[in-house]
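Renewal narrative, Specific Aim 1. Our central claim is that a sequence can be written position by position from structural information alone. The example that follows is taken directly from our test logs and has not been curated for this report. It begins with the C-alpha coordinates describing the chain, in the order in which they were read.
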Protein backbone atom coordinates (compact mmCIF):
# COMPACT_ATOMS: atom_id res chain seq x y z
CA UNK A 1 0.00 0.00 0.00
CA UNK A 2 2.87 2.27 0.92
CA UNK A 3 4.51 1.62 -2.37
CA UNK A 4 1.42 2.30 -4.36
CA UNK A 5 0.98 5.52 -2.45
CA UNK A 6 4.50 6.56 -3.23
CA UNK A 7 4.19 5.72 -6.86
CA UNK A 8 1.00 7.71 -7.05
CA UNK A 9 2.61 10.64 -5.35
CA UNK A 10 5.48 10.54 -7.77
CA UNK A 11 3.17 10.31 -10.72
CA UNK A 12 0.78 13.05 -9.72
CA UNK A 13 2.98 15.56 -8.06
CA UNK A 14 4.76 17.06 -11.05
CA UNK A 15 1.61 17.42 -13.12
CA UNK A 16 -0.20 19.10 -10.25
CA UNK A 17 2.67 21.28 -9.25
CA UNK A 18 3.34 22.95 -12.57
CA UNK A 19 -0.19 24.11 -13.39
CA UNK A 20 -0.59 25.45 -9.86
CA UNK A 21 2.48 27.60 -10.15
CA UNK A 22 1.35 28.67 -13.57
CA UNK A 23 -2.07 29.56 -12.19
CA UNK A 24 -0.56 31.72 -9.50
CA UNK A 25 1.63 33.43 -12.03
CA UNK A 26 -1.29 33.92 -14.38
CA UNK A 27 -3.32 35.42 -11.58
CA UNK A 28 -0.59 37.95 -10.79
CA UNK A 29 -0.20 38.73 -14.48
CA UNK A 30 -3.93 39.22 -14.86
CA UNK A 31 -3.97 41.97 -12.30
CA UNK A 32 -1.12 43.71 -14.09
CA UNK A 33 -2.74 43.16 -17.47
CA UNK A 34 -5.73 45.28 -16.54
CA UNK A 35 -3.45 48.11 -15.53
CA UNK A 36 -1.30 47.69 -18.65
CA UNK A 37 -4.30 47.33 -20.98
CA UNK A 38 -3.15 44.11 -22.58
CA UNK A 39 -6.70 43.16 -23.56
CA UNK A 40 -8.32 43.52 -26.91
CA UNK A 41 -11.73 42.65 -28.32
CA UNK A 42 -12.53 40.53 -31.34
CA UNK A 43 -15.98 40.58 -32.89
CA UNK A 44 -17.98 37.74 -34.39
CA UNK A 45 -20.90 38.45 -36.75
CA UNK A 46 -24.45 37.39 -35.83
CA UNK A 47 -26.24 36.60 -39.06
CA UNK A 48 -29.85 36.43 -40.18
CA UNK A 49 -29.88 32.99 -41.77
CA UNK A 50 -32.50 33.75 -44.42
CA UNK A 51 -30.95 36.93 -45.80
CA UNK A 52 -27.32 36.57 -44.78
CA UNK A 53 -27.43 40.06 -43.21
CA UNK A 54 -25.17 40.67 -40.22
CA UNK A 55 -27.38 42.15 -37.52
CA UNK A 56 -24.72 42.64 -34.90
CA UNK A 57 -21.45 41.30 -33.52
CA UNK A 58 -20.51 39.50 -30.33
CA UNK A 59 -17.57 40.97 -28.43
CA UNK A 60 -15.03 38.32 -27.37
CA UNK A 61 -12.15 39.36 -25.18
CA UNK A 62 -8.52 38.42 -25.96
CA UNK A 63 -5.48 38.73 -23.76
CA UNK A 64 -2.26 39.58 -25.52
CA UNK A 65 0.24 38.43 -22.91
CA UNK A 66 3.73 39.95 -23.36
CA UNK A 67 5.43 36.55 -22.93
CA UNK A 68 2.78 33.91 -23.52
CA UNK A 69 1.17 35.44 -26.57
CA UNK A 70 -2.57 35.17 -27.00
CA UNK A 71 -4.19 33.62 -23.92
CA UNK A 72 -7.68 32.27 -24.76
CA UNK A 73 -10.59 33.48 -22.60
CA UNK A 74 -11.36 29.99 -21.32
CA UNK A 75 -8.00 30.20 -19.52
CA UNK A 76 -8.41 33.54 -17.82
CA UNK A 77 -12.15 34.30 -17.50
CA UNK A 78 -12.65 31.72 -14.73
CA UNK A 79 -9.63 33.15 -12.93
CA UNK A 80 -10.92 36.68 -13.38
CA UNK A 81 -14.24 35.55 -11.91
CA UNK A 82 -12.57 33.96 -8.90
CA UNK A 83 -10.49 37.01 -8.12
CA UNK A 84 -13.24 39.53 -8.85
CA UNK A 85 -11.12 41.09 -11.59
CA UNK A 86 -13.95 40.26 -13.96
CA UNK A 87 -15.81 43.31 -12.64
CA UNK A 88 -13.35 45.95 -13.94
CA UNK A 89 -12.51 43.79 -16.96
CA UNK A 90 -16.21 43.38 -17.76
CA UNK A 91 -16.77 47.12 -17.65
CA UNK A 92 -13.82 47.62 -19.95
CA UNK A 93 -15.32 45.08 -22.40
CA UNK A 94 -18.67 46.87 -22.21
CA UNK A 95 -17.15 50.29 -22.90
CA UNK A 96 -15.03 49.05 -25.79
CA UNK A 97 -17.93 47.08 -27.22
CA UNK A 98 -20.22 50.10 -27.09
CA UNK A 99 -17.57 52.25 -28.75
CA UNK A 100 -17.30 49.71 -31.57
CA UNK A 101 -21.10 49.68 -32.01
CA UNK A 102 -21.08 53.48 -32.34
CA UNK A 103 -18.60 53.16 -35.22
CA UNK A 104 -20.59 50.40 -36.96
CA UNK A 105 -23.77 52.44 -36.77
CA UNK A 106 -22.06 55.28 -38.59
CA UNK A 107 -20.93 52.81 -41.24
CA UNK A 108 -24.40 51.32 -41.70
CA UNK A 109 -26.98 53.78 -40.38
CA UNK A 110 -29.82 52.33 -42.45
CA UNK A 111 -29.71 49.17 -40.37
CA UNK A 112 -27.77 49.97 -37.19
CA UNK A 113 -25.82 46.96 -35.91
CA UNK A 114 -25.74 46.09 -32.21
CA UNK A 115 -22.99 44.72 -30.00
CA UNK A 116 -23.52 41.59 -27.93
CA UNK A 117 -21.53 41.51 -24.68
CA UNK A 118 -20.91 38.49 -22.42
CA UNK A 119 -21.61 39.12 -18.77
CA UNK A 120 -20.45 36.81 -16.01
CA UNK A 121 -22.46 35.85 -12.94
CA UNK A 122 -20.10 37.75 -10.72
CA UNK A 123 -20.82 41.02 -12.54
CA UNK A 124 -24.54 40.42 -12.37
CA UNK A 125 -24.30 40.06 -8.60
CA UNK A 126 -22.47 43.37 -8.19
CA UNK A 127 -24.46 46.15 -6.60
CA UNK A 128 -25.31 48.84 -9.11
CA UNK A 129 -24.56 46.72 -12.17
CA UNK A 130 -27.70 47.68 -14.08
CA UNK A 131 -27.07 51.38 -13.38
CA UNK A 132 -23.48 51.10 -14.56
CA UNK A 133 -24.61 49.54 -17.82
CA UNK A 134 -27.19 52.28 -18.38
CA UNK A 135 -24.60 54.95 -17.61
CA UNK A 136 -22.17 53.56 -20.15
CA UNK A 137 -24.88 53.23 -22.76
CA UNK A 138 -25.95 56.83 -22.29
CA UNK A 139 -22.35 58.06 -22.28
CA UNK A 140 -21.75 56.25 -25.58
CA UNK A 141 -24.87 57.85 -27.03
CA UNK A 142 -26.41 54.53 -28.02
CA UNK A 143 -30.08 53.57 -27.80
CA UNK A 144 -30.84 50.39 -25.78
CA UNK A 145 -31.30 48.48 -29.05
CA UNK A 146 -27.56 48.93 -29.64
CA UNK A 147 -26.69 46.51 -26.86
CA UNK A 148 -27.46 42.88 -26.12
CA UNK A 149 -26.21 41.14 -22.99
CA UNK A 150 -25.39 37.43 -22.90
CA UNK A 151 -25.79 35.58 -19.63
CA UNK A 152 -25.67 31.89 -18.84
CA UNK A 153 -28.60 29.91 -17.57
CA UNK A 154 -26.79 28.81 -14.42
CA UNK A 155 -26.70 32.43 -13.37
CA UNK A 156 -30.45 32.62 -13.03
CA UNK A 157 -30.90 29.20 -11.53
CA UNK A 158 -29.26 30.50 -8.40
CA UNK A 159 -31.60 31.98 -5.94
CA UNK A 160 -30.11 35.38 -6.35
CA UNK A 161 -32.37 38.35 -5.77
CA UNK A 162 -29.74 40.83 -6.97
CA UNK A 163 -29.25 39.16 -10.35
CA UNK A 164 -32.99 38.92 -10.98
CA UNK A 165 -33.45 42.58 -10.11
CA UNK A 166 -30.65 43.63 -12.47
CA UNK A 167 -32.18 41.51 -15.22
CA UNK A 168 -35.61 43.11 -14.77
CA UNK A 169 -34.19 46.64 -14.60
CA UNK A 170 -32.10 46.25 -17.75
CA UNK A 171 -35.01 44.81 -19.70
CA UNK A 172 -37.32 47.59 -18.50
CA UNK A 173 -34.84 50.00 -20.03
CA UNK A 174 -35.11 48.14 -23.31
CA UNK A 175 -31.82 46.27 -23.26
CA UNK A 176 -32.17 42.80 -24.70
CA UNK A 177 -30.78 39.81 -22.86
CA UNK A 178 -29.79 36.43 -24.29
CA UNK A 179 -29.28 33.10 -22.58
CA UNK A 180 -25.93 31.81 -23.77
CA UNK A 181 -24.89 28.17 -24.21
CA UNK A 182 -28.50 27.08 -23.92
CA UNK A 183 -28.90 23.37 -23.32
CA UNK A 184 -25.62 22.81 -21.51
CA UNK A 185 -26.86 23.66 -18.02
CA UNK A 186 -29.27 21.89 -15.76
CA UNK A 187 -32.39 23.66 -16.89
CA UNK A 188 -35.10 22.03 -18.93
CA UNK A 189 -37.00 23.52 -21.81
CA UNK A 190 -39.76 24.60 -19.44
CA UNK A 191 -37.23 26.92 -17.84
CA UNK A 192 -37.69 29.19 -20.84
CA UNK A 193 -41.23 29.89 -19.73
CA UNK A 194 -40.12 31.17 -16.34
CA UNK A 195 -37.25 33.48 -17.15
CA UNK A 196 -37.88 36.65 -19.03
CA UNK A 197 -35.19 37.04 -21.63
CA UNK A 198 -35.29 38.01 -25.28
CA UNK A 199 -32.99 35.60 -27.06
CA UNK A 200 -31.84 32.00 -26.69
CA UNK A 201 -28.44 30.98 -28.02
CA UNK A 202 -28.35 27.25 -28.74
CA UNK A 203 -24.98 25.87 -27.70
CA UNK A 204 -22.64 24.78 -30.46
CA UNK A 205 -22.49 21.22 -29.16
CA UNK A 206 -26.08 20.79 -30.42
CA UNK A 207 -25.38 22.45 -33.73
CA UNK A 208 -22.25 20.49 -34.62
CA UNK A 209 -23.25 17.69 -36.98
CA UNK A 210 -26.83 18.80 -37.66
CA UNK A 211 -26.14 18.39 -41.35
CA UNK A 212 -25.61 14.65 -40.82
CA UNK A 213 -29.33 14.33 -40.11
CA UNK A 214 -29.16 12.42 -36.88
CA UNK A 215 -32.92 12.26 -36.21
CA UNK A 216 -32.63 12.66 -32.42
CA UNK A 217 -30.31 15.61 -32.56
CA UNK A 218 -32.37 17.34 -35.23
CA UNK A 219 -35.60 16.77 -33.31
CA UNK A 220 -34.05 18.22 -30.17
CA UNK A 221 -32.78 21.37 -31.85
CA UNK A 222 -36.00 21.81 -33.77
CA UNK A 223 -37.86 21.48 -30.47
CA UNK A 224 -35.81 24.29 -28.92
CA UNK A 225 -36.32 26.49 -31.99
CA UNK A 226 -40.08 25.91 -32.06
CA UNK A 227 -40.56 26.42 -28.35
CA UNK A 228 -38.49 29.60 -28.33
CA UNK A 229 -40.57 30.95 -31.19
CA UNK A 230 -43.81 30.04 -29.45
CA UNK A 231 -42.54 32.07 -26.52
CA UNK A 232 -41.64 34.98 -28.82
CA UNK A 233 -37.92 34.64 -28.23
CA UNK A 234 -35.20 35.16 -30.78
CA UNK A 235 -33.09 32.07 -31.46
CA UNK A 236 -29.44 32.06 -32.42
CA UNK A 237 -27.62 28.85 -33.30
CA UNK A 238 -23.96 29.01 -32.28
CA UNK A 239 -20.99 27.28 -33.85
CA UNK A 240 -22.26 26.83 -37.42
CA UNK A 241 -19.25 25.47 -39.28
CA UNK A 242 -20.68 23.43 -42.14
CA UNK A 243 -23.03 24.42 -44.96
CA UNK A 244 -25.07 21.32 -44.04
CA UNK A 245 -25.59 22.58 -40.47
CA UNK A 246 -26.67 25.93 -41.88
CA UNK A 247 -29.13 24.30 -44.28
CA UNK A 248 -30.61 22.08 -41.57
CA UNK A 249 -31.09 25.06 -39.24
CA UNK A 250 -32.64 27.15 -41.95
CA UNK A 251 -34.99 24.30 -42.86
CA UNK A 252 -36.19 23.97 -39.26
CA UNK A 253 -36.92 27.70 -39.12
CA UNK A 254 -34.03 28.89 -36.98
CA UNK A 255 -33.83 32.62 -37.74
CA UNK A 256 -30.29 33.56 -36.63
CA UNK A 257 -26.85 32.02 -36.46
CA UNK A 258 -23.21 32.50 -35.76
CA UNK A 259 -20.14 30.46 -36.59
CA UNK A 260 -16.94 29.99 -38.53
CA UNK A 261 -18.99 29.33 -41.68
CA UNK A 262 -19.85 33.04 -41.74
CA UNK A 263 -16.82 34.39 -39.95
CA UNK A 264 -14.36 33.80 -37.17
CA UNK A 265 -14.14 36.50 -34.53
CA UNK A 266 -12.53 39.52 -36.21
CA UNK A 267 -10.10 42.16 -34.92
CA UNK A 268 -11.73 45.60 -34.62
CA UNK A 269 -10.52 46.90 -37.97
CA UNK A 270 -11.75 43.84 -39.83
CA UNK A 271 -15.13 44.12 -38.12
CA UNK A 272 -15.40 47.67 -39.40
CA UNK A 273 -14.43 46.53 -42.88
CA UNK A 274 -17.10 43.84 -42.62
CA UNK A 275 -19.78 46.49 -42.25
CA UNK A 276 -18.24 48.69 -44.89
CA UNK A 277 -18.27 45.94 -47.47
CA UNK A 278 -21.22 44.64 -49.35
CA UNK A 279 -21.54 41.19 -47.78
CA UNK A 280 -22.70 42.82 -44.54
CA UNK A 281 -25.52 44.74 -46.22
P1 LIG B 1 -19.12 31.95 -25.82
O1 LIG B 1 -19.74 33.19 -25.28
O2 LIG B 1 -20.00 30.76 -25.97
O3 LIG B 1 -18.48 32.38 -27.21
C1 LIG B 1 -18.43 31.53 -28.33
C2 LIG B 1 -17.08 30.87 -28.46
O4 LIG B 1 -17.12 29.94 -29.54
C3 LIG B 1 -15.96 31.85 -28.80
O5 LIG B 1 -14.76 31.35 -28.22
C4 LIG B 1 -15.91 31.75 -30.33
O6 LIG B 1 -14.67 32.12 -30.87
C5 LIG B 1 -16.17 30.28 -30.52
N1 LIG B 1 -16.80 30.00 -31.83
C6 LIG B 1 -17.53 30.81 -32.60
N2 LIG B 1 -17.94 30.20 -33.72
C7 LIG B 1 -17.45 28.95 -33.66
C8 LIG B 1 -17.53 27.80 -34.55
O7 LIG B 1 -18.13 27.82 -35.60
N3 LIG B 1 -16.91 26.67 -34.12
C9 LIG B 1 -16.22 26.62 -32.95
N4 LIG B 1 -15.64 25.46 -32.63
N5 LIG B 1 -16.12 27.67 -32.09
C10 LIG B 1 -16.73 28.82 -32.46
P2 LIG B 1 -13.80 32.27 -27.39
O8 LIG B 1 -13.67 33.62 -28.05
O9 LIG B 1 -12.55 31.49 -27.16
O10 LIG B 1 -14.55 32.49 -26.02
C11 LIG B 1 -14.77 31.43 -25.14
C12 LIG B 1 -15.68 31.83 -24.02
O11 LIG B 1 -15.07 32.80 -23.17
C13 LIG B 1 -16.96 32.49 -24.47
O12 LIG B 1 -17.88 31.50 -24.91
C14 LIG B 1 -17.40 33.18 -23.21
O13 LIG B 1 -18.04 32.28 -22.35
C15 LIG B 1 -16.07 33.60 -22.63
N6 LIG B 1 -15.84 35.01 -22.93
C16 LIG B 1 -15.27 35.58 -24.01
N7 LIG B 1 -15.25 36.93 -23.92
C17 LIG B 1 -15.83 37.23 -22.73
C18 LIG B 1 -16.12 38.45 -22.05
O14 LIG B 1 -15.85 39.57 -22.51
N8 LIG B 1 -16.72 38.35 -20.81
C19 LIG B 1 -17.06 37.14 -20.28
N9 LIG B 1 -17.66 37.12 -19.07
N10 LIG B 1 -16.83 35.99 -20.91
C20 LIG B 1 -16.22 36.02 -22.11
CA1 LIG C 1 -21.51 34.31 -25.72
CA1 LIG D 1 -22.11 30.50 -26.25
CA1 LIG E 1 -19.26 29.32 -23.70
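The sequence written for that structure reads:
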Amino acid sequence: AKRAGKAQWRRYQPSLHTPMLQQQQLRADLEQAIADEEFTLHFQPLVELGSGITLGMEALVRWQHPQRGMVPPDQFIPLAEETGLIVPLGLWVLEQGLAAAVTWRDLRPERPPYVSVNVSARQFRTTGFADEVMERLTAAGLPPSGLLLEITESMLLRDDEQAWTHLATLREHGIRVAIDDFGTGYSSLSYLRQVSVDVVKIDKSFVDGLGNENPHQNALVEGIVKLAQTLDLGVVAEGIEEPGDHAALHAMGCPYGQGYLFSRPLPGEDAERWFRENRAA
